[in-house]
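Hi Q.,

Before the meeting this afternoon, I wanted you to have the PGU prediction in hand. No need to reply - just skim if you have a minute. The sequence and ligand are here:
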Amino acid sequence: MIHRNPNLARLKAGYLFPEIARRRREFAAAHPEDPARPETRIISLGVGNTTEPVLPHIGAGLTEGARKLGTVEGYSGYQDEGLAKLREQIAAVFYGAHCAASGAASSGAFSIEEIFISDGAKCDIGRLQLLFGAGTKAAVQDPSYPVYVDGSVLAGAAGDWTGAGYEGICYLPCTAENGYFPDLEKLPENALFYFCSPNNPTGAAASREQLIQLVTAARKKGCIVIFDAAYAEYIRDPSLPKTIFEIPGSRECAIEVNSFSKPAGFTGVRLGWTVVPKELKYAGGESLNADWTRITGTIFNGASNIAQSGGLAALSETGLAEIHQLCDFYLGNAALIRTALQKLGITCVGGDNSPYIWACFPGRDSWEVFAEILEKCRVVTTPGAGFGPAGQSFIRFSAFGHRPDVEEACRRLEKLRIS
Ligand code: PGU
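Predicted structure with the ligand bound:
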């Protein structure tokens, strides 16, 4: 018989979001919705899943991609490395003049060999582990998107850390006290550091000064930063960097993962990208870019060509305007949720440059608060503890929802008022 991968046994409960879905189903079974009483309908502000239709120009790009497959001239098959035009557009739109001007891209703009098209950020966060192998040290912001920790545990990440989270993983608390930015003195040497900005779940977007500190610390300590910029298009404060590659020195220490999911509503379409700069090297001087080319060529057959056609439309002038419009819509939801919570005297952050609001319930267990909100308001949220030990006593509210549902959820939150 074959032995189970021992790292699977190290994983604690199920993955966070299916667990929330399970609790929702359990609650719904015990408290069936009554169509005659709309207040019994469950509203989800839980998983960060987009809800609004794909906007027309981007939608036309998807349709066109499908149409072309039905023609001799337009047909295409495998495109392992992704559509060259899409890679060029990504390099130009996201890593163009502003990155070159910062000095991060010494050779000017990024080359398309540094842009890898993926079927989403989550998939690449998992696959990137193959670059490093078991025994690598992994550090995360605490709280953080659970895939960084669970993925690292599965890959056999190891260090001497013990505590409330997973053994072997270094948690760097991001709390109100430190402005949701970790103490980089505590960043271990020679580790992979997962850093997400704008942050899931706290909504904190790192300033340029903070990212300069991050790059400086990573280079000093021999770390590689896996920078997750999945929510970059939600940044509205023009002083905040949208990519790590705006920071000088970042090409020597960072990989960026990104996605069309949240800006273009592609959560179900599946399209993202990863940037692996050519300057990035292992301890032995080998190139991560060459290895990533080898790995993706071997175990990934590329993103759907229909999705890539949609992605190309999303990066045209009209498409980018639609992205802005869609993010503005969800940010409008976020403002409503934040205002509703603040009216109740609940302290919260986020929601201004991110679609998540991070609300504090001092002294409370976050799974208990999750259950209370579900019972009293029939609103699904995400308990902060699911994102790491420092998430205890917090609840994440997602701004992804139809406007009438968000408005209704905000009205129902009144029931949390402590009289
Ligand atoms: N990176 C971050 C920081 C995310 O929050 C999410 C989705 C992704 C990547 C995934 O991007 P894809 O390009 O769509 O793969 N986070 C959502 C959905 C839950 C999940 O498991 O991915 C969330 O609610 O946190």
